[in-house]
Amino acid sequence: MAPVEGMPLLGHVISHWRAFTDEFIFVVKHGKQSLIDYVATLPIDSAFVEPEELRGIADGLRYAQPLIDGPFIVVLGDCYCRGVFNFPPDFRSGVGVIAGAQEAQIQNNYSVEVTGNSIHALVEKPLRAPNDLCGTGFYFFQPDVFSYIQQVDDRCNSGELGITEVLIAMIEQGIDLQAVELNGVYVNANHAEDALRIAELLRDQDHVALTYQD
Q: What whole-number distance in Å separates Cα of residue 58 and Cα of residue 65?
């Protein structure tokens, strides 16, 4: 909900993803009321679910399961992007990636290794990046992902239920998880300087166009 160029960061995130759908499910917890009040002002169909406790992205996602009956996109609310996603042929499930990333950016997110378009390895916050592919906070799923979330939860029994562990379990069991390359810009807004970077991109459309060409 941090303000960026006249509206909450979340507003810019929603603005991008409205190109895909007007149906949004928000997984909320701390500070939820300000988010709910803001979303009520937007021209989208919205629903809200709240985990009993904060146990990670995959655990929070399970609370949305009753509202999902087809392919869906998971978007982390602090991840900003502009550009076009290039979906492989016969695509079913995968994660958004951006090529040409600096090692520091990959270390703050996760690394992705691919053969063709198929992902064969992911590492959360790697000490050393194996290539220039950076995983993003965008995931494209079918409803069968919930069975893998349950498998990982049964195996760990307690602690955080992260989305990367679920992706790894899917790969290990033969799911063709594919890389969906973003031709554009991506900022995971973890720090104040990230919000300033997003503001700069919003102000300077020529800068965004040049980044696309990179």
A: 11
pTM: 0.90
Distance CA 186, CA 83 (A): 9
Give domain 3-213's CATH architecture. Alpha-Beta Complex (3.90)
Beta-strand runs (E) in the chain: 3-4, 7-8, 23-27, 45-49, 72-75, 79-86, 93-98, 110-115, 118-124, 134-141, 177-188
Which residues does residue 72 pair with via DSSP β-bridges, in sequence order?
141
Please state the domain extents for the chain: 3-213
Interval 121-175: pLDDT, tens: 999 999 999 999 999 999 999 999 999 999 998 887 667 889 999 999 999 999 9
3-state SS of 18-37? CCCCCEEEEECCCCHHHHHH
- 93-102 per-position pLDDT tens digit: 999 999 999 9
* 112 touches 95 (CB < 8 A): yes
